[in-house]
Known about the structure:
- The structure holds two protein chains of two kinds.
- Chain A is an alpha/beta fold.
- Chain A is built from 17 helices and 13 strands.
- Chain A folds into two domains: 265 residues, NAD(P)-binding Rossmann-like Domain (Rossmann fold, 3-Layer(aba) Sandwich); 101 residues, 3-Layer(aba) Sandwich (Oxidized Rhodanese, domain 1).
- In chain A, helix 4 links the parallel strand 1 and strand 2.
- In chain A, helix 4 packs parallel to helix 5 and helix 4 runs parallel beside helix 10.
- Chain A is elongated and about 75 Å long.
- Chain B has one domain: Ubiquitin-like (UB roll).
- In chain B, 16% of the residues lie in helices and 22% in strands.
- Chain B has two helices and five strands; from the N terminus they run ββααβββ.
- Chain B has a five-stranded mixed beta sheet with strand order 2-1-5-3-4, covered by helices on one side.
- In chain B, a hairpin with a 2-residue loop joins strand 3 and strand 4.
- At the A-B interface, strand 5, helix 9, strand 8 and helix 16 of A face strand 4 and strand 5 of B.
Amino acid sequence: xRESAPRLDPTKVRLSNEEIRRYGRHLILxxxxxxxxxxxxxxxxxxxxxxxxxSPLALYLAAAGIGRLGIVDFDLVxxxxxxxxxxxxxxxxxxxxxxxxxxxxxxxxPNVAVELFSARLTSENALDIIRQFDVIVDGTDNxxxxxxxxxxxxxxxxxxxxxxIFRFEGQVSVFSAPDGPCYRCLYAEPPPPGLVPSCxxxxxxxxxxxxxxxxxxxxxxxxxLGIGEPLIGRLLLFDGLSMRTRELKLQRxxxxxxxxxxxxxxxxxxxxxxxxxxxxxxASENQKAFSISTGELKRKLDHGDPVLILDxxxxxEYEIAHLESLLIPLNDLxxxxxxxxxxxxxxxxxxxxxxxxxxxxxxxxMGFRKVKNLVGGIDEWAELIDTEMxxx
Amino acid sequence: xxxxxxxPTPLRAYTEKKDVVLLEGNTVGxxxxxxxxxxxxxxxxxxxxxxxxxxxxxxxxxxEDIRYLQQEETRVTExxxxxxxxxxxxxxxxxx
Lengths: 392, 96
């Protein structure tokens, strides 16, 4: 292995009597045994993201007796995380996820050396962090970090245990193993922002990351022990609603820009730009003309201005909380645009202002001129204007 | 003589929520073009402006990626299942 941290020699680690009692159910498995348990203790695993996938991963890897567990995260625990991120708990709301993760891991297994990286994984720090671990587990929630983790793992020859979720469906695979494919062999490029709905827009059933993250933990343990058939060159698809799994064949693409026969990418790049995400520029005068703050909207409504509020969220979201408005979910807008009167002043809102921004762009293309995006969405309205309104 | 085309969750918004669509055709290309003529808004999610299949959407016949078969010319029968598998990331609103 090139550029990797020196691996601990499993024959040199020792298990205490307490550890032998703790891992008894592993030790009596012929596939694990004392030798396997020592491999787990000698191993180091990096979990990228302490969220929905990272939660079961960290819990099971800690319980299994992984010697050194690294976690990268920079978020705080929020109430809306607790529906699926079982690493964290109610008393930790508002505190760093890393703190919550460390306390929980050590309460499960004080033998684990926990290493915390309080940062967003970036092109600048990724190689230095990833280099220090034997196996990398991708529990991220966005495309730029996924491609970054993939590329860094390929450059450093580290196996990358991949998991991804959407609503009721998950994907699991092992990338960047010797002779195996990488994430770019599966998907050479990410979708442009906005084309594929995210979990924040589409929702996710809380049990799903539990299942997918646990599958990733299983693959990680198998890789370390060298047992079974890891998901190298196979993409496992899981559908929680039908409770069906399927498996698709993956192969290393000889033309892959990252791991192919003639790699074009030999260093980490700007992944935000690669994924088409450009830093939000200061709002131009033109954009300002097409946006409105929650305070301004409140003044207009109090004043009795004839303004139509167009809500472009989904029905389920509308049912949680809404203003007096017309509901046309963003996806239905092209089909139902004729229900709108372009001579009327229209304020478009969604949860936080992202989808409504897209709706305003679309309406502008359709010739609407008196259309404004509610900056901060109904979430900011509930935070600043109507504090009785539930937030989600 | 129709072939099953499996629609993934993120794209069901464009197929009247159907998870399976039965279509007739001899090749994967036939099926996809029929699919996107029936459900026109789906087109830009599968094909780019030049009409090529987008690189974040993979199409499989049974468990084989059509990129390693005959691409859109890959022949299908009523015994085959065609699956559209787009990339998913989980997580937050990407434009924030």
